[in-house]
Amino acid sequence: MAIYTKEEAKKIMEKALSFSTADTCSINLSGSESGNIRYARNSVSTSGHRSNQSLVVESSFGKKSGVATIDEFDDASLEKVVKRSEELAKLSPENPEFMEPLGPQTYDESLSYIKETANISPDYRAEVANSSIKPAAAKDVTAAGFFNDSARFSAKLNSKGLFAYNQSTGMDFTVTMRTNDGTGSGWASRDYNDVSIFDAAEASKIAIDKAVMSQNAKAIEPGKYTVILEPAAANDLLSRMFWSFDARRADEGRSFMSKDDGTKLGQKIVDERVNVWSDPLHPEIPSSTWDGDGLPVKKMKWLEKGVVKNLSYSRYWASQKGVDATPSPSNFIMAGGDASLDDLIKDTKKGILVTRLWYIRSVDPQTLLYTGLTRDGTFYIENGKIKHPVKNFRFNESPVIMLNNLETLGKQVRYNGNLIPYMKIRDFTFTSLSDAV
Amino acid sequence: MKRRDFVQMAGMGAGAMMLPVSMFGNNISAEALLEPGLDPAAKKVLADVALNTARSLGATYADARIGRYLNQYVFTREDKVQNVVNTESFGIGIRVIANGTWGFASTNDVTQDGIKKTTERAVAIAKANSKFQKEPVKLAPTQSHGEVSWKTPIKKDFKDVPISDKVDLLLSANAAAMENGANFVNSALFMVNEQKYFASTDGSYIDQDVHRIWPTFDVTAIDRAEGKFKSRNALSAPMGMGFEYMDGLDSEKLKGPEGLILYRNSYDIVEDATNAAKQAKEMLTAKSVEPGKYDLVLEPNHLGLTIHESVGHPTELDRVLGYEANYAGTSFATIDKWKSGDFKYGSDIVNIFADKTQPGSLGAVGYDDEGVKTKKWDIIRNGVLVNYQAIRDQVAILGQNESHGCCYAQSWNDVQFQRMPNISLEPGKEKYSIEEMIKDVEKGIYIAGRGSYSIDQQRYNFQFGGTVFYEIKEGKIVGMLNDVAYQSNTQEFWNSCVKICDKDDYRMFGSFFDGKGQPSQVSAVSHGCSHSRFNGINVINTGRTI
Predict the structure, then answer these.
(1) A196 lies within 8 A of chain B by CB
(2) Strands (E), A251-368
(3) How much is the pLDDT for B20?
(4) Which of A24, A108, A188, B199 yields a CA-CA distance of 20 to 30 A from A427?
(5) A363–B465: do the CB atoms touch at under 8 Å?
């Protein structure tokens, strides 16, 4: 079993540290147990189980550091890995940006571990596949999906007295349903820390319904449209913006957050209804309460009423700028409203409903312009009703422009570890049509 | 890990502590990279334990892959070394067919006992999964090769080159960029050695030593007053070569327009960084493109990625059949189109071949990861789709009885499956140079280098950017352009191919990080071509204000 308790982990790391002769020494110990099942063409294609554990030692002499890794934890192995990291440190060039390890910190108790998820069995995984394949076959639809679950732990100990430990569990599920005539495709995705919330049959049904509904899509002209983005579509564009709040790149003048000789910190950059924050203790999306450097991760506001409230600072960059280090967000939460998807559709005169976006790539980092395509369920809305499926579009759009063109925010949903609302956006730019189903 | 995450991490020069060990292996010293692994005789004894155990448990087929994967990465920015990473990963992956079903298990406990237990697990998985199997696996026959070996034909092993030489080379390139007007530069060297031993119940024992190298950088110029920044990345290619790729031989340089220097089998990183800085500065004031139809002259480092996305992926048989439907997608190049025998993928001059033997390419090996001797075959001949990429358990679907030899696993602990071989565009038969090609264009754009790329899940609609763009008017380059991307449909695009330069202009582009499968595996692949011209392609303007 690769999952150690807090006490077991600490004991191994303290033993390793006892062999250190370097100026400073940091030790990370982590392990995971994960299992998966994959299916396609209404049949299971692969399944597997993986167990990983490793201990990483970083030893430093002055500003020279060396890193060594090992996956055996007997005393001789621990001594060997510490010595090897010290030899490597002595041979390394100086790193002018070296930061001494942090001293002891206080962390919140994390909520990210759920026992039921850690106990998932191969039979459970097979049943997930069955819950997709059986209803698909009954509706002349072909299922392809992937379910992955994991339990992990991560611990950190250093020669300055810092000790941190976290356990987490998680599961991810995606399923694509394609009608057997090849003209319709639907998709659904679920991810939770707690598997007891997960219902494979419910998610599979949504994907099957979308596949059937999206058959024989009509082509309509590309151009600027009002769109209702489901949370998966919105998240995949917006997360690229929310992960780009790095202060250093902004200060260096090579970020969408750069401005003249400074940054956009304190400036209103999007609609005033946009509020975004991160919170490792949010019960729906719990995550670790410390980051890779051992810094405590706390609730943090990034956008408030459309104004940039914080940028993330690495320890080095914070020291250069004389500010406190601010870890990057561990998740993000975007405030939503009360409207359901049905409410949003009812309230739309003419628009496009988008299930998800695909193959999103950066076009211009200066304006955060991205391109990509709609996929697995794109529908035309007229006078408050879904009229018919439409062929997929290619878009070229910036999340910054998008959040300035905000019409309505709907209910929040967990997607990919974040909480993101349904949203209606005007003037979303579709630049061409795709024949892909 | 996704390629994007890796590149982002590489760009940031994240500490080695942050690198995921499962992908790269354990950190070791540079000297330890030079330690020899097990000799082939010792590996044969161990592999036979797996094969014999599998047979005794009722498996009808088994293969064992003993792999030692050595990597060295060097990351720098401006005048600083950010990180030097050396890793080693060693273990065995065992694949079996029992009850007509595949089973796979792997371990880093490469002892007779560890191998026996792992083989038992692989057979147990096969038997358990056979409950869900609709049709038994059909393996195409393959030759028994006996005891053979193959090695990438390198001149300089990266492991013999001192780290200080590699660091000095990158810092010289960075200094050259900074002296020529860059505000920032990140550079990196990725070096890989796969020592792979394959054995199967078909009677093959294959020892291979595979080398790859990829030098790269990103140079940024900034105009703070205007609030603009522009980047120019390296015009290098990842190659299946040794450290000799870094020699910068003049004989391997090709002259592009406007002083652009292009590299074939030898790369001059200091010269390219110098030019990159000058071009990044020029981009800050270059004209924004007028959208519309243009004739495009595409440079091989750029066109290689277009080939990868629009021909390489759609002709992978597992995608065509729906095995990747939930991840990368399916394909427009369906079996009925191929069976018709007249599906015009491209114009008559478009000939695209798959090849696992091209010297210097990333995909070149002597034998694939299921012991099939590698070869070259046609995918598109005279514009018509004639074949796919398929492995031993797939070719029967095509009515063929010989695997194409393109099976690959990223590591000993991942199961092998069908991966893209090198997919390349044949050069034109008549002598035709870049100058002649540009001279023949009335209204066009010359595009060099890799940029943004995006394509739909069935590979119809794509949008590509580039690194450097030049406007062509009445047969002459008239200046640099900004904000260029072209959008097209795969079949329309390849049917608009009107001219291809000859073999003197042919060279390869490649990628270390072609992703496929769930859990995702990466694979390295090259794409060769000459400068080619595509008429009447839709160009959009990507400039925006925020």
Answers:
(1) no
(2) 258-259, 262-263, 276-278, 300-304, 307-308, 333-334, 350-364
(3) 37
(4) A188
(5) yes
What is the distance between the alpha carbons of residues B405 and B419, in angstroms, rounded to a whole number?
10
Q: What phi, psi does A181 have (nearest 5°)?
A: -85, 0
ipTM of predicted assembly, 2 dp:
0.94
Domain ranges of chain B: 3-219, 288-541
3-state secondary structure of B492: helix
> Residue A373: which domain range?
216-238+336-434
Tokens of B424: 């390349």
Q: Is B81 on the interface with A (CB under 8 A)?
A: yes
Residue of chain B nearest A400, judged by CA positions: B546
Contact A361/B at CB under 8 A: yes
pLDDT at B27 over 80: no
Residues A72 and A109 in one domain: yes
pLDDT, averaged per 10 consecutive residues of chain A (437 residues), comes to: 90 98 97 92 86 91 92 91 91 90 98 96 92 97 97 98 98 98 98 98 98 98 98 98 96 95 95 98 97 96 98 97 96 97 98 98 97 98 98 98 98 98 98 97
Please tell me if residue A9 touches chain B, with a CB cutoff of 8 Å. no
pLDDT in tens, B256-310: 999 999 999 999 999 999 999 999 999 999 999 999 999 999 999 999 999 999 9
- For position B25, what pLDDT does the model report? 66
* Interface check B459 vs A, CB under 8 A: yes
Chain B residues with CB-CB distance to A64 below 8 A:
none
* Fold classified for B3-219: PmbA/TldD fold (3.30.2290)
Q: Per-residue pLDDT for B32 more than 80?
A: no
Buried b (16+ CB within 10 A) or exposed e, B446-481: bbbbbbbbbbbbbbbbbbbbbbbbbbbeeeebeebb
Least Cα separation, residue B150 to chain A (angstroms): 31
> How many CB pairs (< 8 A) connect A and B?
210
